[in-house]
Amino acid sequence: MDWLLETTNLTQGEFLILLGLTMFAGVVRGFSGFALSAMVMATAVVILPPVELIPMLWWLEMSASLLMLKNGWAEADRPMAYGLVIGALVGWPIGLWLTLSLPVEISKALALSVIVVLAISQLAKLKLPFLASKAGLYGTGTLAGIASGVAHVGGMVVAFYVLAADKPAHVMRASLVLYLFLGSATSMLVLLLFGVMDFSGISRGLVFAVPTMIGVLMGQLLFTERLSAYYRPVCLILLIGLALLGLIRTQFA
């Protein structure tokens, strides 16, 4: 245990809290197909600043995506996913620059605010038809990259494009999985160039990838087609509540 605490540079309390949070976020990702990074960011930001959570979340998203990639590759709209990833490569440096430039407390508030706005918009089923175009594809990808650089929640931005494109639910879920996998693979370069992917980020990511994957497998086992219509709104409401609590805590800490 001491070795794990030293490697991750966390106290015992922080380690145990992150252990539970990452497993819970994995369960959510397993049955809903999204919200892993948003769930961790919304809760763990009171322990670690966004700039330290983002590299850790890279490993969690990659591990979860590997477990879910089979269906994602088979059912996803691949040209759409490729276009979104290309756009995200443009947005990632902008988002990371913002995160690195702002004071820690402001970067926390910005990350949590982005999560709240995106979650409320999705809960309201905000549909933006103008996104269903070539310009909308790459524009959404760029905004997703910025959101990833700020709070690692690019997948929630991508969901708006998928909704505008009026894709079937299984294609939407699979396309998000494929985007998150490809986006993680390409964003590693940006994280390295900005010096954000350091030893702490790598060690925390590898350590907490284990409970995350356990959670994803549990979530997949819990998935029931009969209740699938309720998963997303319940997760979004929970996410909004957690992010708002995080905002309140950061403002009055």
How would you describe this structure in keywords?
single chain, 253 residues, mainly alpha, 11 helices, 0% strand, globular, TSUP, membrane, transmembrane helix, cell membrane, TM_pro_TauE-like
Structural notes for this entry:
It is found in: Cell membrane. It comes from Octadecabacter ascidiaceicola. Keywords: Cell membrane, Membrane, Transmembrane, Transmembrane helix, Transport. Belongs to the 4-toluene sulfonate uptake permease (TSUP) (TC 2.A.102) family. The protein has eleven helices and no strands. It has about 250 residues and is mostly helical. Helix 2 packs antiparallel against helix 3, helix 3 runs antiparallel to helix 4 and helix 5 crosses helix 9. The two termini are about 30 Å apart.
Set down the secondary structure blueprint:
Blueprint: H1 2-8, H2 12-32, H3 36-44, H4 50-75, H5 78-101, H6 104-123, H7 134-151, H8 154-164, H9 169-193, H10 199-222, H11 228-252
Helix pairs in contact: 2-3, 2-10, 3-4, 3-11, 4-7, 4-9, 4-10, 5-7, 5-9, 6-8, 6-11, 7-8, 8-9
Membrane topology: Multi-pass membrane protein
Protein name: Probable membrane transporter protein
Family: Belongs to the 4-toluene sulfonate uptake permease (TSUP) (TC 2.A.102) family.
